[in-house]
Write a structure and sequence with these properties.
The chain has about 170 residues and is α+β, with helices and mostly antiparallel strands. It is built from 7 helices and 5 strands.
């Protein structure tokens, strides 16, 4: 399952579903397909015509993940993973896209890593919450071990990280 497979599917999406927006630091416009609203403030996750993930507002600029994932992508973590994935499946069904492809291509692992490395109490706690509901990769296990003793993290987050590390050792 590759982005090129998804590009073929995206070409069948009706034109009325696509939105034209700008990139904040670039000239020109991008056509993108909003899929899932990920924040109450109106931020949407979508895809551009090349099957590159975008994040932005319907009536505003969008950020692309073409070269790297912008730090604003941690907003995906504000909800819970199960609800996010259900909403992504519903969007795929509504638009005739492969849910399996979308689910596989969403960069959740990278977003979790970015959130923990941000050292923001809110985003770190949200990332740990998501990790409590999933299999923990080796890289994330290392980050959780570091987090469990990090002086900058609050006590609640350190304890949650410690519990996840212990649970993964069983």
């Amino acid at each position: 399952m590759t982005a090129s497979d998804l590009i073929v599917e995206l070409s069948a999406v009706p034109e009325r579903c696509w939105i034209v927006s700008s990139y904040p630091d670039q000239s020109g416009a991008v056509e993108w397909l909003p899929l899932v609203q990920i924040s109450v403030t109106g931020i949407w996750l979508g895809l551009d015509r090349r099957a590159v993930w975008t994040l932005g507002r319907i009536e505003g600029a969008v950020e692309s993940s073409a070269e790297n994932i912008p730090s604003s992508w941690v907003t995906i973590l504000d909800g819970d993973e199960k609800s996010f994935r259900v909403a992504l499946n519903a969007a795929a069904e509504r638009l005739g896209l492969s849910s399996k492809k979308l689910q596989k291509l969403i960069p959740v692992e990278e977003i979790l890593t970015m959130a923990i490395r941000s050292r923001s109490s809110h985003w770190v706690e949200r990332a740990v919450h998501w990790m409590s509901e999933r299999h923990i990769s080796g890289e994330h296990l290392q980050l959780l071990q570091e987090l469990s003793t990090a002086k900058w993290a609050n006590q609640r987050t350190r304890h949650m990280a410690r519990r996840l590390v212990k649970a993964s050792e069983k």
